[in-house]
């Protein structure tokens, strides 16, 4: 039973445009959400997070939006750059602090 | 460089064998997490140690075990290996338990032949 779902295995975006990566979850007890970025042959690196008490968190080109009623979050990257090409993982945690991961979305930025 | 060191980077072994993966957390981090990433799969949480004590278990097989030593490094032991155990195994560390912004090592790629 996948509690965190990233339904798009891959996404292709033109350089300079907005990239929107989506994530859905089923467990209403999740209270903290994170996005990690992963390059091939490297471990994931933390990108941005959001608490369930917020609906938006912004860090430079990266913004995460949380819609609790829809159990949906999204990561917006504006403008998209070639170096953003990577696999993006959405993760969630509840009061037990264990990260539950999505399967990842491969983002390809086209020049 | 995340500060988390995993050895070896690559490991090829035969079915039925036993291997040990090692993780050195970032200096001062008390929590160590182990994850498995099989081909085209997401990261599966295996186990979490905090300051030498097991805190949580995820989808870890009985053939697998882990421990965290007094110097805070951790080892993941995989025994009676099967072809399906071939995967990337990641270790992550964080300063305290509950800090979900963990730092990941580069992983150990295990190939069982």
Brief synopsis:
The complex is a heterodimer of chains A (111) and B (113). Chain A is built from no helices and 11 strands.
Helices and strands in order:
The complex is a heterodimer of chains A (111) and B (113).
Chain A: E1 4-5, E2 10-14, E3 19-25, E4 32-38, E5 45-51, E6 56-59, E7 62-67, E8 72-77, E9 86-93, E10 99-101, E11 105-110
Parallel strand pairs in A: 2-11
Antiparallel strand pairs in A: 1-3, 3-8, 4-5, 4-9, 6-7, 7-8, 9-10, 9-11
Chain B: E1 5-7, E2 10-13, E3 19-24, E4 31-37, E5 44-50, E6 53-57, E7 64-68, E8 74-78, E9 87-94, E10 103-104, E11 108-112
Parallel strand pairs in B: 2-11
Antiparallel strand pairs in B: 1-3, 3-8, 4-5, 4-9, 5-6, 7-8, 9-10, 9-11
Plain-language structure description:
The complex is a heterodimer of chains A (111) and B (113). By secondary structure, chain A is mainly β. Chain A is 0% helix and 55% strand. Chain A is built from no helices and 11 strands. In chain A, the strands form 2 sheets. In chain A, strands 2, 4, 5, 9, 10 and 11 form a 6-stranded mixed beta sheet that branches. In chain A, strands 1-3-8-7-6 form a 5-stranded antiparallel beta sheet, with no helix packed on it. In chain A, a hairpin with a 2-residue loop joins strand 6 and strand 7 (62-67). The model of chain B has no long low-confidence stretch (mean pLDDT 91). Chain B has 113 residues and is mainly beta. Helix content of chain B is 0%, strand content 50%. In chain B, strands 2, 4, 5, 6, 9, 10 and 11 form a 7-stranded mixed beta sheet that branches. In chain B, strands 1-3-8-7 form a 4-stranded antiparallel beta sheet, with no helix packed on it. Chains A and B meet through strand 5, strand 9 and strand 10 of A and strand 5 and strand 10 of B.
């Amino acid at each position: 039973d996948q509690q965190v779902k990233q339904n798009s295995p891959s996404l292709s975006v033109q350089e300079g445009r907005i990239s929107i990566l989506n994530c859905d979850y089923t467990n209403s007890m999740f209270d903290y959400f994170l996005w990690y970025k992963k390059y091939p042959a490297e471990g994931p690196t933390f990108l941005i997070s959001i608490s369930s008490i917020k609906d938006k968190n912004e860090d430079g080109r990266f913004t995460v939006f949380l819609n609790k009623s829809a159990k949906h979050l999204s990561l917006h990257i504006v403008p998209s750059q070639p170096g953003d090409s990577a696999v993006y993982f959405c993760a969630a945690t509840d009061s037990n602090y264990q990260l539950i991961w999505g399967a990842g979305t491969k983002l390809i930025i086209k020049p | 460089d995340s500060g988390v060191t995993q050895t070896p980077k690559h490991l090829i072994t035969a079915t039925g064998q036993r291997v040990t993966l090692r993780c050195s957390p970032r200096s001062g981090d008390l929590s160590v997490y182990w994850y498995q990433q099989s081909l085209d799969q997401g990261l599966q949480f295996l186990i979490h140690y905090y300051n030498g004590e097991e805190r949580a278990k995820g989808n870890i097989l009985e053939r697998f075990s882990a421990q965290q030593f007094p110097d805070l490094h951790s080892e993941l032991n995989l025994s009676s290996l099967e072809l399906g155990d071939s995967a990337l195994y990641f270790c992550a560390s964080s300063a305290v338990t509950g800090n979900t912004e963990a730092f990941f090592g580069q992983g150990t790629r295990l190939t069982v032949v």
